């Protein structure tokens, strides 16, 4: 948050009332953990410590009511980066309307194909006609997405070149934690290079894992939880109607269990396994399995042979012993060890755990390491 300004509900009301707002500066930004302030300050010497900005209703006595034609037109680019989430199109819609309200001659460019389109300067001018079919629609298909990163020196340089060629006043990066981290780094680089483009990160993520005192929740999190909760409730009704099935529902959210927890609060399943609790308690894979079995047995003793269990998709990564196994295999992959030899070169305890896993999960671990190590998504329970 030190490289951009977050907006609360009161400020949104101010922004929605007109094209002009009054700015009030507050305290300097800092880190949540004071022990990390020095490291962050070193990594972001020019953008760390900027003062917080609060948007207020315009003060007419201060000349805020300047005529529209007296305001200079603004050129802004917007790029989708990260996992698609509800609300992305509405961010573009709101940005377009705000720019046109400020000055009808302002231009909004959308980068086609995500960050790859940003690097290649592949743009689409956003107009009312372009937006007509995408307002209030989910997904990122208006512009699309690609590798979802602006990280290497070559990528940052390409992004800056595009901003300079288009003479952009601002670049809006729509995405989650990683995308906003890249936005912060890009903002620092543009300041260092004296590029006039201002970088703004918009927290759009279904994971709900980008929250602090300035961000109540991410765009899309509420929609995802409500839609999933409705589906889970339907499954719960089916389970209690049949009276003989257990449903395991794996929910999106990567390693964070925010979506799973919110859906559990709304739909009331019989059990929720939270990745954070598993990691904090340092539970083993067998202990997690035993907890599930104990719950099933307890319900059976009450004559209930059905139920619904919610599991976050990144649960496997939260189990310490599984995470350690994944790290060992990842190191061997990076050292170009053949897949067939990996099981024999891991540590003894890792080999024992690997042999304990069902054969189809062993194959997932060994042959789909890229997706598995990055997200731990593709294991089916």
UniProtKB/TrEMBL annotation:
GO terms for biological process: fructose 6-phosphate metabolic process; photosynthesis; response to glucose. Its cofactor is Mg(2+). The keyword Transferase applies. GO terms for cellular component: cytosol. Gene3D superfamilies: 3.40.50.450. Keywords: Cytoplasm, Glycolysis, Kinase, Magnesium, Metal-binding, Transferase. It catalyses: beta-D-fructose 6-phosphate + diphosphate = beta-D-fructose 1,6-bisphosphate + phosphate + H(+). InterPro entries: ATP_PFK, Phosphofructokinase_dom, PKF_sf. One of its GO terms (molecular function) is diphosphate-fructose-6-phosphate 1-phosphotransferase activity. Residues 75-323 form the Phosphofructokinase domain. This is Phosphofructokinase domain-containing protein.
């Amino acid at each position: 948050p030190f490289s951009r300004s977050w907006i609360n509900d009161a400020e949104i009301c101010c922004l929605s009332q007109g094209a002009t707002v009054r700015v009030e500066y507050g305290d300097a930004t800092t880190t949540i953990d004071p022990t990390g302030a020095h490291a962050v300050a070193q990594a972001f010497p020019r953008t760390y410590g900027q003062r917080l900005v609060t948007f207020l209703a315009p003060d007419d006595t201060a000349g805020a009511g300047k005529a529209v034609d007296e305001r200079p037109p603004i050129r802004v680019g917007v790029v989708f980066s990260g996992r698609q989430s509800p609300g992305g199109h509405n961010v573009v819609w709101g940005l377009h309307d705000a720019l046109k309200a400020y000055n009808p001659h302002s231009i909004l460019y959308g980068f086609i194909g995500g960050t790859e389109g940003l690097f290649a300067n592949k743009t689409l001018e956003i107009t009312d006609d372009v937006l007509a079919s995408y307002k209030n629609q989910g997904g990122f298909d208006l512009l699309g997405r690609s590798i979802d990163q602006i990280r290497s020196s070559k990528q940052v340089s390409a992004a800056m070149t595009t901003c300079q060629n288009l003479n952009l006043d601002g670049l809006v990066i729509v995405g989650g934690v990683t995308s906003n981290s890249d936005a912060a780094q890009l903002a620092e680089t543009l300041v260092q290079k004296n590029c006039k483009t201002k970088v703004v990160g918009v927290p759009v993520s279904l994971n709900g894992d980008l929250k602090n005192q300035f961000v109540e929740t991410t765009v899309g999190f509420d929609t995802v939880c409500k839609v999933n909760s409705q589906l889970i409730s339907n499954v719960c009704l089916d389970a209690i109607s049949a009276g003989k099935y257990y449903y395991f529902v794996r929910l999106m959210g990567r390693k964070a269990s925010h979506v799973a927890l919110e859906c559990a609060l709304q739909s009331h399943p019989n059990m929720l396994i939270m990745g954070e609790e598993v990691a904090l308690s340092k539970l083993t894979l067998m202990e997690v399995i035993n907890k599930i079995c104990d719950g099933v047995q307890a319900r059976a003793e009450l004559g209930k042979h059905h139920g619904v269990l919610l599991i976050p998709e990144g649960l496997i990564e939260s189990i310490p012993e599984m995470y350690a196994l994944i790290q060992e295999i990842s190191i061997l992959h990076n050292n170009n060890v053949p897949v067939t030899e990996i099981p024999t070169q891991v540590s003894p305890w890792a080999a024992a755990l690997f042999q304990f896993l069902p054969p189809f999960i062993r194959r997932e671990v060994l042959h789909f390491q890229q997706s598995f190590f990055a997200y731990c998504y593709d294991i089916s329970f």
